[in-house]
Amino acid sequence: MAFGIFPKDQEQLRLPPGATTGLVEFTVPKTAGKMFLRIVAVGSGSEPLGGAAPTIQLRAGSGVIATVPAEPAERVSIHDENAEAVAGASWIREANDVFKVSIVISKKSERKWRLRITNNDPEELGFVWVTSTDEAETLQPRISPAGEQRSFGTKAVFNEPLPVITVVVANIGTGALGITDPPDTDIGGGFTLMARPNRIQPNHADSLVFKAQPVTPGRPEDELRTQYVIGTASDSTAAERTITLSRLGVSPPPPLSHKPTKDRKDNKDSKEDVIDKGHGAPPEYIGVAGPVDVDSLFGAGEESMTRQLVELEEKFATLAHFIPPELRPDLSANLLARETEPVAGPGADEAEGRQREGR
């Protein structure tokens, strides 16, 4: 037998704390001796909440609604409108907040069957359930883009690294979700599926990563857009698996201009720049009152300047002393001969004068 997946008009039925689904009809073949239901309580954080189990109730025909107990408790008897026991049922909690309900039908007949779920957790939960006479058929994934978003886009600039588009996909079904399209699949429209998970367990989410073609030279603002039906090993409809991808090209920013402006040519500061920098009036308008002191202009006293002049004179004399005699014909032989004498110390001129007087 095929299976039935609920709700049929939306991806999941969200229930606030204490809220109920109401009685939802499902099909049980008149020849069936067993029936199975799997219910998943979908949390809000892409992972199982692990909270309070919901209340699961069944009704056969117009009989009294029966609350199904958790195993290992004994199956509850389900009666029809004639107060006759027609079936028994119980449930067990599986991994990822999935609850499996087993119904053993003791009196086969064509009758209406209905299910009611009540959220007993203090947080809002979503519910998805699958029915079938084959237990394995109730393990059905249901794909849902996170936040139920269906369109994903990015922007790209010419000659810059391409951004990727990441689509978070959740499995809100009762069985594992397999992605069939392999990595590096060209999905058309200028997009490639770069990476994807192998399997996504119920009540979990993972990412699909896409890359778009580069921006076309000469057409910096071109746009790519495509619709992609996610390949899965599930019975989800094409509408449930369809997402839209887009890539908008963006013109690069204009290059910075290095041309000097008329107010600042050759990187020279203008008069206005000098004033703006806090220097006040330009230097040509600065006046000096009174006599100019050497110390104020050069930062050195009179004694220091005199010493520097004396040192300069001595260096010049030393250089002149070693000029060869053949290059100095203006001096007498007597004066040239004296240049070989030692340089006299302080008071040498006075001693020389007294010696001449003695002669």
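the 2nd protein, sequnce then structure:
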Amino acid sequence: MNTASTQLAAASGLMSLVLFIVALGVLALLAGGFWMTAREKYRESPRPRPEEQPKLPPEGAVHELRQNRESADVPRIPKGERPLTPYELSNMDSRPSAAKERPRWSKGSSGSFGGGGLGAH
């Protein structure tokens, strides 16, 4: 009986020692990570001083321009010919629209696919 309890105590002590060494290893990794981060932060250029901060232009803040835009038309392909690939299309720019009214979504629509809203009521 005495030898069984001695063996159990020895195994328990060995397990405690292994767990302690693993904990020290994890702690060393964390400390190393903090040290490397601090070293990297030290190498960065300093933050800009207040006099180096961006300033507003002399004419003041830039104001929003609100206008309706319409997209360029996609070229139509004659029947029987292959469709154009995205690489063959030019940059599809938009242009100012002659219409002055903003386009509205149909009643009961959320205005976007999967918008999640109940839409106009």
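The mean pLDDT is 79. Residues 10 and 16 are 10 Å apart (CA to CA).
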